[in-house]
Amino acid sequence: MATTEFLGMEKLIVCVHKRQNALCRLICFPWAGGGTSLLAQWGKRLSNSIEVFCVRYPGRETRLNEPFAKDMTSMVNEVTSVLLKELQEKPFAFFGHSFGAYLSFAVALHLKEKYGLEPVHLFVSGAHAPNSEAILPIKSISVSDAKDEEVFEYLQTVGGTPSVLLHNEDVRKNLLLTFKEDFRVFQTFSFEKAEMDIPFSCDITCFNGGDDKPYDLQGWQELTSGDTSFYELPGGHFYLLEPSNEIFLTKHITRCIENAGL
């Protein structure tokens, strides 16, 4: 059993800086088509009291030979089953960007409903509130009908992948496939807030790039009895790749977690 658990962790989680004495873990969820390279490195930037885990989605990196996830529920179940012992062991916070923001929310909701566990803080970036109607048009886009050139143009526009890599045919094909599959998973995400139900009590912080498309963020305030904060940083959808923004994010996240009274 222990071996199975270890293999599950090895497969799903990247932890560059192991900190066994950390008071809290920050679990990071990357964007659609993304890997663990950037967010896993946050382990070096956050204080010694925080250990950073980055989730590795199926179909990429060391999981390249695995099939992509079929839907959001299967991803939520995988993350929960692999991480449950760690999440019960010490306090945790979540950070998710774009697709990762929706997945982190879905995992947090599942943990709260099934196990009574809740993050000490939820950090979301580049995403609508999950209870926003702005999500509906995105869910109705037909990915299978979209031409590769259109998807590629979109990926070039939003950024996030160095242009030198995009000129490599294999990299481009792999990125297109991975993005499309992750986008299909996103389209299976659904959340309907019950009238009087406030699922969380933790603080929620929303980040986004000032030049990115506007997001409907107000709905986040209805999802917690804790505080909700909003920060707009210079840059587009991938503002968090800018070194100065990365410094701000990691410092701010450290401060929020350390102030959570662990």
UniProtKB/TrEMBL annotation:
<keyword id="KW-0444">Lipid biosynthesis</keyword>
<dbReference type="Pfam" id="PF00975">
    <property type="entry name" value="Thioesterase"/>
</dbReference>
<protein>
    <recommendedName>
        <fullName>S-acyl fatty acid synthase thioesterase, medium chain</fullName>
        <ecNumber>3.1.2.14</ecNumber>
    </recommendedName>
</protein>
<keyword id="KW-0275">Fatty acid biosynthesis</keyword>
<dbReference type="GO" id="GO:0016297">
    <property type="term" value="F:fatty acyl-[ACP] hydrolase activity"/>
</dbReference>
<dbReference type="InterPro" id="IPR029058">
    <property type="entry name" value="AB_hydrolase_fold"/>
</dbReference>
<keyword id="KW-0378">Hydrolase</keyword>
<dbReference type="InterPro" id="IPR001031">
    <property type="entry name" value="Thioesterase"/>
</dbReference>
<keyword id="KW-0276">Fatty acid metabolism</keyword>
<keyword id="KW-0443">Lipid metabolism</keyword>
<feature type="domain" description="Thioesterase">
    <location>
        <begin position="25"/>
        <end position="245"/>
    </location>
</feature>
<dbReference type="InterPro" id="IPR012223">
    <property type="entry name" value="TEII"/>
</dbReference>
<comment type="similarity">
    <text>Belongs to the thioesterase family.</text>
</comment>
<dbReference type="GO" id="GO:0051792">
    <property type="term" value="P:medium-chain fatty acid biosynthetic process"/>
</dbReference>
